[in-house]
Amino acid sequence: xxxxxxxxxxxxxxxxGSRSCRVCKHKAGLIRKYDLNLCRQCFREKxxxxxxxxxxxxxxxxxxxxxxxxxxxxxxASRNEQD
Length: 83
Hints:
Layout: H1 3-6, E1 30-31, E2 38-39, H2 40-50, H3 59-65, H4 73-82
Antiparallel strand pairs: 1-2
């Protein structure tokens, strides 16, 4: 059995070896969510074309939504008082 016949001899039907980026065929850094199957570099290039928008909150907006690190029970209590 020569080296050529042993190399890539097992089937790659599942696991990390079976998946690759649909654009550049790269296997590392793959984003599989929503069946994208893009590596992270290609995702950054194609995100606007696909329809992804980067959303950033200011600290005051995130506190109002209860998302910030200082948004605790006081924020929830003030919401309950308003209801």
